[in-house]
Amino acid sequence: SQQGEEDPQALSIQEGENATMNCSYKTSINNLQWYRQNSGRGLVHLILIRSNEREKHSGRLRVTLDTSKKSSSLLITASRAADTASYFCATVGFSGGYNKLIFGAGTRLAVHP
Amino acid sequence: DVKVTQSSRYLVKRTGEKVFLECVQDMDHENMFWYRQDPGLGLRLIYFSYDVKMKEKGDIPEGYSVSREKKERFSLILESASTNQTSMYLCASSLPGLLVAQYFGPGTRLLVL
């Protein structure tokens, strides 16, 4: 099963609104990462938050981490049409005999002008 | 900025052909990865490499092989392409360890007829 799972699967908002995406994971982590993928393109690393951090900001992005609830959220403030993309959380998990970065299924965000 | 390039954005091959997907990174990263991405299945790790001439099987190595003769280049080889290998292939690189960001190439969308 997925180490990280995003919620909701899809989100549709108007430009200027805030978008919040959530990620839940199963095992203890050292860090959690968020990535963005524009349609048909590769993933772009957005932000990494360590297990001893509770909140991190990068421009219009705000990430929170609650290790007691095993969850993280990504907030995009004042969204723009260019924010339309899929957003993935990723954590390190042990599977198949090795550690690896495991990606969730993603949240598809559509920002309408 | 880290740059990861992939040899082709789109590729069409016939069943049974041998297919080479090339990935080059310019940041002297030790780690390199090959994923495939399919709707509903997310990103799945095919192979990874922690150093030159080293390779490790990921979750779905069957039907694939890899080559890493130089640090900056990681090649994915489809020995005999099949229609179920039609997919988006993503290459990534990173510094050592898993508690770091992975940097992705733009992806190669492969269609096997």
Fold and architecture overview:
The complex is a heterodimer of chains A (113) and B (113). With 113 residues, chain A is an all-beta fold. Chain A has no helices and 11 strands. In chain A, strands 2, 4, 5, 9, 10 and 11 form a 6-stranded mixed beta sheet that branches. In chain A, strands 1-3-8-7-6 form a 5-stranded antiparallel beta sheet, with no helix packed on it. In chain A, a hairpin with a 2-residue loop joins strand 9 (85-95) and strand 10. The radius of gyration of chain A is 14 Å and the shape is globular. Chain A starts with a strand and ends with a strand. With 113 residues, chain B is an all-beta fold. Chain B has a single domain (4-104), classed as Immunoglobulins (Immunoglobulin-like), CATH 2.60.40.10. Helix content of chain B is 0%, strand content 53%. In chain B, the strands form 2 sheets. In chain B, strands 2, 4, 5, 6, 9, 10 and 11 form a 7-stranded mixed beta sheet that branches. A 4-stranded antiparallel beta sheet of chain B has the order 1-3-8-7, with no helix packed on it. Chain B is globular, with a radius of gyration of 13 Å. The chains are: A mainly beta (113), B mainly beta (113).
Can you tell me the number of structural domains of chain B?
1
Radius of gyration of chain A: 14 Å
- CATH superfamily of chain A, by name, is Immunoglobulins
Q: What is the H-and-E element order of chain B?
A: EEEEEEEEEEE
CATH topology of chain A: Immunoglobulin-like
According to CATH, the homologous superfamily of chain B is Immunoglobulins
Based on secondary structure, the structural category of chain B is mainly beta
The total count of strands of chain A amounts to 11
| Low-pLDDT residue spans of chain B | none
Q: Would you identify the regions of chain A where 5 or more consecutive residues have pLDDT less than 50?
A: none
Largest interface: A-B, 24 and 23 residues
Total individual domains of chain A: 1
Strand content of chain B: over 45%
Helix content of chain A: under 10%
Distance from first to last alpha carbon of chain A: 36 Å
Proportion of β residues of chain A?
Answer: over 45%
CATH architecture descriptor text of chain B: Sandwich
